[in-house]
Amino acid sequence: MSEISRADVEHLAKLAHISMTEEELTTMAGELAVIVDSVKTVSEAVSAEVPATSHPLPLTNVFREDVVGEVFTEEQSLLNAPDAQDGRFKVPAILDEE
Amino acid sequence: MTEMIRLTAAQMAEGMRAGEFTSTELVQAHLDRIAAVDGGDRGINAFLHVSGEEALATAAEVDKIRAAGGGGTEALHPLAGVPIAVKDLIVTVGQPTTAGSKMLEGWMSPYDATVIEKVRAAKLPILGKTNLDEFAMGSSTEHSAYGATRNPWDLDRIPGGSGGGSAAAVAAFEAPLALGTDTGGSIRQPGAVTGTVGTKPTYGSVSRYGAIAMASSLDQIGPVARTTEDAALLHELIAGHDPKDSTSLVDEVPAFAQAARRQDVTGLKIGVIRQLQGEGYQEGVLARFQESLDTLRAAGAEIVEVDCPSFEYALGAYYLIMPSEASSNLARYDGVRYGRRVLPTDAPLTIERVMGATRAAGFGEEVKRRIVLGTYALSAGYYDAYYGSAQKVRTLIQQDFDAAFEKADVLISPTSPTVAFPLGEKLDDPLAMYLNDVATIPANLAGIPGISVPGGLADDGAGGQLPVGIQFLAPAREDARVYHAGAALERLLAADAEPLWARAPELQTPAAQTAGE
């Protein structure tokens, strides 16, 4: 069984910016240990000589002329904003503490 | 009039051309069907949003052009006026897009996905947006934040996932065509368990612009339909190069529908993948699979066995690559520019706390599980062992496919190891849920096309009979081959019995359910 502790999950959740309750951390530690255990065979399947494939088909860079195309209007950009003011995204004040 | 919803998309198109009915009548019949079977406690719940007014307006446009005759009529796309449903992972102007998540509840896209632009240009009335596992993460549509979809064959069973809504809508005659997305089997596996046809096109052959990203190197938009020909017609409509998608292929779009109409399979070499049968596959599924092989052989196809030894590691590789890419793609849901924002009440506000609370409230359990798993696989110290190794397995799987396609024109396997399982059965066991995708995942890792076509019925273990799907795979860019082979099997099986899609049980309307109680 893989060693994934509650503390490991707490660290990962912090990196992923997801707040979790004590119960969630404990449950997820158990689940992740089982999942990681089942997928770790992949490291046994390959050797250093096997090249990695990051993408199913070869990719080439795509360029376009540096000209202004169709862009969203201010209204479209702010359409789904949780909060907006004066044509800008409005976020909570975070500088007056800690 | 209600019988028009039981035609194939090709028959609907023909019926409108022949003046037997109008698009408005056709769309209204589907809206009536949705109203009758989709809602209520025992409704299918295939639709998260129904856009009746918009669909009727498009239908009226088509009818007007037809009524006027002359020049405009020739310009109409062959499928013009045939309604379509769209998986709610594909963005649409004027209709909400939620990805099945509370994070995007009420979100309105300021732009259309490229496939939607094509559907609108061809004047297919869009009936609405269909249910899915949240952000396409799941194999049963039970991970939707808006409730599970029911399988029209048995309302207590799952319709597959993540595109269960699209498949169920087609199977329940709520729509003749639907769009889905397939990252590890999310078009093919729901197709298999609902008795419908689903295709995962070659990676890059259909633009992903406007498909909300889960795992960008695996995701692919594709068609859901009742017949192979219908799927091919829709595939032709949505395929083609798109400069807005940097992974879009520049190839010409082949004639898929023509391939689906080819009658002869004499000499077609079909490779049976040794690793995708046996352990873990239900007896009834294997029996229908064997019958399909016998049927194809009797019709002149050559059946050969192929070995794909690295497939043993495909599921593991997929469940490292997919969450890794998903953890990166879903980082955009930070509560700043769009989506939900939750302000924590018990602490001073910091960026971390607002993001943490927002993502805790907006994401469901399975999404959180995969983000954390992906974060783990990508973290320092584990990257080489997990993500790096998984990318190497991908190379081995491509090599397996290359070798197999030297021996065979197409490959065949059951699409899903089991028939539809009861709702709730695997909800608390993520690993058991992940095993559903064992036969479909290799195609996504290699970027090759695949199709699932109905292969008959098998015992569900509780006295009922449920659909079994047969999967065909072909080399990249050879999608026409899967349509040829899929249509051949479909035609051969229909020679002995009514097509499977026409044999779905009658659904009771909520009013009838109440009266019967």
| Assigned CATH architecture of one domain in chain B | Alpha-Beta Complex
**Tally of strands of chain A:** 2
Helical coverage of chain A, percent range: 25-40%
**Record field, number of beta strands of chain B:** 11
Low-confidence stretches of chain A: none
Which word captures the global form of chain A? flat
Overall pLDDT score of chain B: 95
Determine the oligomeric state from the structure: heterodimer
Give helix % range of chain B.
25-40%
CATH topology of one domain in chain B: Amidase signature (AS) enzymes
Largest sheet of chain B: 11 strands, mixed
The ordered H/E elements of chain A are HHHHEE
Summing up helix and strand content along with how strands pair, one would put the structural category of chain A as: mainly alpha
Strand order of the largest sheet of chain A: 1-2
**What count of helical segments of chain B does DSSP give?**
18
Beta percentage of chain B is 5-15%
Please give the CATH architecture of one domain in chain A: Orthogonal Bundle
Cα separation of the termini of chain A: 41 Å
Gyration radius of chain B, in Å: 22 Å
Protein name (chain A): Aspartyl/glutamyl-tRNA(Asn/Gln) amidotransferase subunit C
Family (chain A): Belongs to the GatC family.
EC number (chain A): 6.3.5.-
GO molecular function, one term (chain A): glutaminyl-tRNA synthase (glutamine-hydrolyzing) activity
